[in-house]
Amino acid sequence: MAKIDYFLEGLFHEHKDKLFKIGFYELKNKQTAEELVQDVFCDVADNPGQVSQHPNPKALLFAMLRNKIRNEYRRLDYQNKLINFLRPPQEEQIQSEQQYKDILETYLGSEDAALLYEFYILGYTLTELCELHKIGLSAVKMRLKRARDTLKETMAIIL
Amino acid sequence: MEDKAKKPNGREVKKISNIDVEQLRSRSTEDLYAMYHEIFAPVGDEEEDAFSEADLEDVALMEAISTILDERNPGSVPAFDDSKAHKAFRRAYMDSPNSQEHRDAPKGKVVKIRFRWAMTAAVLLIVLSVGTAGAIRMWRYSVIQSGDKMYTQNNTASNAGANDTGGAVIDNWEDALDVMGGSFMLPGWLPEGYEFTSFDYGDNGLLKVVNLLYEKDDMGICYVITKGDLSNFVIEKDEAEAEVAVIDDIEFYIYSNNDNNNILWIIDDVQYNVFSRLSFEELYEII
After folding, report:
1. Does the beta carbon of B96 lie under 8 angstroms from any beta carbon of chain A?
2. ipTM (interface predicted TM)
């Protein structure tokens, strides 16, 4: 059985259900609420010192979840903008989601295009992207931001 | 009760000092959902990760409103299937370079040493490697496992010195209790086949924690002793399921968390928590 720092393990068992409940009341979606609680604890695991040395670990966890939910709303908003931006001319119809990726690759490098496509179109979580690309959480966040910034410049030129 | 405040990001929020739960209860469910939704409304495009004191208001409000919504719609929230999240949590912890530093922290943050031995071989090994003192320590451990109800660890002058150094390597649970200082209750009985396998010691400056793990095959019993300022500790429990038993003026909180049964109690400035998939009857025996 893989061991984990007991303080963190205790935090998980003590607060997971309450965090899920708080997420569910806002999102009304079990899967998304579960994924965001999972992301909170993956952030904790990624930087355990932040929470173990915090004077109020519980409040920190709750605030992290609130931020995750806000970021999820930002993701959905950006997804709409992205789909509108990537939509081909009226006479053409999107046949598959893969086409979004193909269009993104005309603006971005293949790695950045893949990451944006997976996060915003396919709806992968940050944790899933870490596993998929074998990179850390902060690297995923940094690459997503870089891809958005690059695309933002392109969109501003086109629009 | 309400006044306006500004967060560091410039967002103006309703500040509710010392949230009045009764006042919130007087509001309609629609009002509560609207207030709740406002907490999660994103401001600006930049993702938020920071934490400030102002967030405490949001946290308190989230808790209060969700509690009231629970009361009004009991059973409306499905159960959290935490298996995937827990697996990802453990994997992230083991993979993270930051957590590696956390695990290996040299100055009393977390020191983990695993013990796995057959009793006879271990005694021989200790006699050969660390001499008689180690063998005696091992004998005391076996006595505790076989039935002592209370094991007292006094904070002697030499132990206090070890605590002061901060950087001392703690390689057994007895030394960890020495560093914590004081007298502690320890398991008085273990179900057949369970063996002490490892311990963790943690010190974040506010709290000192010793975690003892006993295992049999893939089953475990965790016994946690926490000492320090417990004023910020809140016992989280589902009131519908938790029981409180008072024995000798000590409140024992008895509750389940998914697969685990928990018993938690506080004596002075020491909190004890034992949890396992064992039955409550077996947990009673342990404490």
Report:
1. yes
2. 0.80
